[in-house]
Amino acid sequence: MSEKLLKIENLETMIEDKKILKGLNLEIGKGEVHVIMGPNGAGKSTLANTLMGHPKYTIVKGDIIFEGEIINDLRVDERAKKGIFLSFQYPEEIPGVTVENFLRTAKGAVSGKQMSIMAFKKLLKEKIKMLDMKEEYLSRYLNEGFSGGEKKKNEILQMAVLEPKLAILDETDSGLDVDAIRIVAEGVKKIIENTDTSVLVITHHNKMLDYLRPDFVHVLIDGRIVKTGDMNLAKEIESSGYEALKNQLGE
Amino acid sequence: MYSIELLNGLLCKKEEWIKAYRLRKFEEFEKLPVPSWKRLKLENFSIPDFKEYRKEFLKNDIDGEGIFVKDINDVSALDEFKEYIDVQKSFGISDKFVTLGEAFYNSGVVIKAASKLKEPVRISYSLDNENSVVIDHNIIVAERDSEITVVIDYSSLSENEEYMNFFHNGVTKVYAADKAVVNIVKVQRMSNSAYHFDSNVAFIGREAKVNWISVEIGSGISATSFITNLEKTASESSLKSIYFGDGESRIDMQYTMNHIGMRSISNIETRGALKDKARKVFRGNLDFKKGARKAKGEEAEYALLLDPTVKADAIPVLFCAEDDVQGNHAASAGQIDENQLFYLMSRGFNEKEAKKLIVEASFKPIIDSIPVEDIKESINLEIHRRLVYV
């Protein structure tokens, strides 16, 4: 039995008065790539935000177990320090903080030890090169005035630098053109190729999956995972849609 | 007490015209009541007693070709400034404090620039128990096509039980002749036991610019006024300021851009944060006078409220006596954005670190525009220190 990095058991979450996740179960092993697909409003982003610990989402039932420990009540930064990373669908702009300074401070915060400036610069240079980004990004203010594609690339750069155990990519492909999706997906692939990072990809589209070649594809409908399969499931949904799947499952 | 006897003592050995000027200001001063600031709950304020300021405050000696810089109290320093010393219009935080500065100044500089100067003039006051009062009077004149930067820094010993009334009252008059550029940076980082009153006025010529930067991160009571007169065609001015209030501190900012010249341009940008029981009032006036056709003015004030116990007022006002102008204002006050906080915390910052980062980041672009490295560093340190208990 492969060691499970993340186990989600019967998870139910609310936002304000509305129940979104209604008994979700999911297991992710080390180094595995999982995909969650689903129609609008199914609870995909809720799942991502709940895993990261957004204060607006309340867990009313079930457990999130990370490396054998229940993390339901951990603060956002504590989860980050355990190795959970969320690539945001809409990354926040923080004018006044350069990308480089931000990454250095974040790296120190997540790893709990401060790297020397030289060693960090070297690491950063490698990652920038790997993601085919320009070095001038580093001196710009975090996400300020970035295009949609630049913001998403920047999220992946953060993932590369912070080296999480579990990376959740929340619609990293949305709003990107075909070329940008390729660059971002190839970047993610390069990051995970050499590590045992597990990835949870949340997406509407299959373009990214062609590059990432996921181990598992899950379909999330109305707060629950209704079907799990492989890449063929993603293709099936692409050709016939969620409604067909719902009918097939008798929902 | 600010009496005639005190003034006569200060005026011995001064030139006759200066005596006459300061005595006249004293007469005005005596007739005026000490004002109240209702919004700040500052009433019955008693002005701390006069003291000499005996420390050196001019930090670099760049007096020389194309630039004249002197201590205002130097013999004959004022000779060339006769036509600039008197401002006919009322200005400043109140006439009482302006005339106090004009009659009883114990420090200050007179500066005249005739060419483009790269190195900033640096003036620095550090108040301590022996030098607890600064009443400075500054006159800065930039002649046609010249360019000058003046950085004035006010700091003090940290909180001290024995001394509860560091006192600064300043008056600064700026004249930019046609096509001149004047950059004035004022940094106030005194302890919370200090009172800070500062009145500034500028007159700007054709195609000339006056750029103000004001940093208010100290003092229990701080009242500042910047009145800028864009007098000629294409006069230009910007005022960028940051403030930070904590404890029981009270901050009053009054910024006015008087658009008189055609196509004159002004821009006010203020960013601040308040915690504990701090209070602030921001008054920003864009005043378009008749004839200021095609003039453009913008003002924006953003306040971060770090505790529910703070109080923040913003009063942006637009006066338009001329139709063909563009004026915009924006003001916002709110807590730190929950999503920004979540984003930073998801990268490992704890809540306190994330809040600190957001506050510091909002100040950074303005601090970065200060041309003196060590002052930037002092400001960053002071903000950092004051943010420890966010």
UniProtKB/TrEMBL annotation, chain A:
CDD domains noted in UniProt: ABC_FeS_Assembly
SUPFAM superfamilies listed in its UniProt record: P-loop containing nucleoside triphosphate hydrolases
GO molecular function: ATP binding; ATP hydrolysis activity
UniProt cross-references to Pfam families, sorted A to Z: ABC_tran (PF00005)
Keywords: ATP-binding, Nucleotide-binding
SMART domains: AAA
PROSITE patterns for this protein: ABC_TRANSPORTER_1, ABC_TRANSPORTER_2
Domain ABC transporter residues, every copy: 6-247
Family label: Belongs to the ABC transporter superfamily. Ycf16 family.
Name this polypeptide is given: Fe-S cluster assembly ATP-binding protein
The species this protein was found in: Fonticella tunisiensis
Automatic annotation (TrEMBL), chain B:
Xref: Pfam families: SUFBD_core (PF01458)
Record protein name field: Iron-regulated ABC transporter permease protein SufD
Domain SUF system FeS cluster assembly SufBD core: 128-361
PANTHER family reported for this sequence: PROTEIN ABCI7, CHLOROPLASTIC
GO biological process: iron-sulfur cluster assembly
InterPro entries: Fe-S_cluster_assembly_SufBD, SUF_FeS_clus_asmbl_SufBD_core, SUF_FeS_clus_asmbl_SufBD_sf, SUF_FeS_clus_asmbl_SufD
Family of this protein: Belongs to the iron-sulfur cluster assembly SufBD family.
